[in-house]
Design a protein that fits this description.
Helicase, Ruva Protein, domain 3; two-stranded antiparallel sheet; two-stranded antiparallel ribbon; Rab-GAP TBC domain-containing protein; Rab-GAP_TBC_sf; Rab-GAP-TBC_dom; GTPase activator activity
């Protein structure tokens, strides 16, 4: 007797790939009725005052992931931004405080470099190691004009659309020596821009300049507040989903910040080696040796017994190995498996 199985609804419409991209990984994740956490099941898990019975949702997430239409709000709980025991009112107050804090940090960054929040970003260095300006940063803008060509302006715009002409804030700041922290931060801004240009470029979402700039802004602000890690290559891959899933920039930032609390060990190094990833590679080698000794021996024979080939996979949680949709499914199932009420 043949048993018919529902193949599920594809999710391509949620994370559209640019038509000219033909080598993007195909998404295998499907929305399956009765397995995938739906919007209806999600809403029914809340009490009248907004407390979430998280136990009603974790099983669904484990069996079939989260419906793309509610991923953003579900992830705020999975990543620990929101406490399931909190009420609607408490979460609204917390969200407002966080947005104010993010705005404060962003304004602090904008005062040091006016392109923060301007809708533009840079891809070339603006200072040398001594903190001396290399050239006018306005010449280095990464921008898109209506005709599709990059161009340079004579002034940048702040988040309110106000013109910031040369010779105002920058001229005043030139007289004040920069701290080592500020120099280090400014040295990373163009590297962030280069990585932003390469992140998820197959997606239609990033055809819009404003979305690229939003990713740059969040990573720039995070690099400023995290004195220990700052910015490292690979963080853009981890931050990108937050921007796509959540409309508000501040909310995206805080989800990324929560994710980095778990993963910052991957980006901390001692004598040039990643502390977190090295431990994971050792664990991977041990597990493979026990579960599949023949595979482990084969890798040893090929010279891959140190499992260094898996560094990128572990650093950015398989973002570059799988399609965007499949990597999100992997993330949320992993988050569900390790979820704890640790607030």
């Amino acid at each position: 007797m043949m048993i018919w199985r529902d193949p599920g609804e594809p999710t391509d419409s949620y994370y559209q790939v640019r038509p000219e991209i033909t080598d993007a990984p195909k998404t295998k994740f499907r929305i399956k009725a009765g397995k995938t956490l739906s919007a209806r099941k999600w809403r029914s898990a809340f009490s009248p005052d907004g407390q979430l019975d998280i136990s009603k949702t974790l099983g669904r997430i484990h069996r079939g992931g989260v419906h793309p239409s509610i991923r953003g709000e579900v992830w705020e709980f999975l990543l620990g931004c929101c406490d399931p025991r909190s009420t609607y009112e408490e979460r609204a107050e917390l969200r407002e405080r966080r947005r104010e804090k993010y705005a404060q940090w962003k304004e602090e960054c904008r005062r040091m470099f006016p392109l923060i929040g301007s809708g533009k970003f840079i891809t070339a260095p603006i200072i040398n190691d001594q903190g001396e300006p290399i050239q006018d940063p306005l010449v280095l803008l990464e921008t898109t004009l209506e005709n599709g060509e990059g161009g340079a302006g004579t002034s940048a715009a702040d988040g309110s659309g106000n013109s910031i002409s040369r010779g105002t804030e920058d001229a005043a700041r030139e007289k004040v020596p920069m701290s080592k922290k500020e120099i280090q931060w400014k040295l990373t801004l163009h590297q962030i821009g280069l990585d932003v240009k390469r992140t998820d470029r197959a997606l239609v979402f990033y055809e819009k300049q404003e979305n690229l700039a939003k990713l740059w802004d969040i990573l720039a602000v995070y690099a400023w507040i995290d004195d220990d890690v700052g910015y490292c290559q690979g963080m853009s891959d981890l931050c990108s989903p937050m921007i796509i899933l959540l409309d508000n920039e501040s909310d995206s930032f805080w989800c990324f910040e929560r994710l980095m609390r778990r993963l910052r060990g991957n980006f901390r190094s001692e004598t040039g080696r990643s502390v977190g990833v090295e431990a994971q590679l050792n664990n991977l080698a041990t597990i493979t040796q026990v579960i599949d000794p023949k595979l482990h021996q084969h890798l040893e024979t090929l010279g891959g017994g140190d499992y260094l080939f898996a560094i990128r996979m572990l650093m950015v949680l398989f973002r570059r190995e799988f399609s965007f949709g499949d990597s999100l499914y992997l993330w949320e199932v992993s988050a569900e498996a390790s979820f704890t009420l640790d607030f």
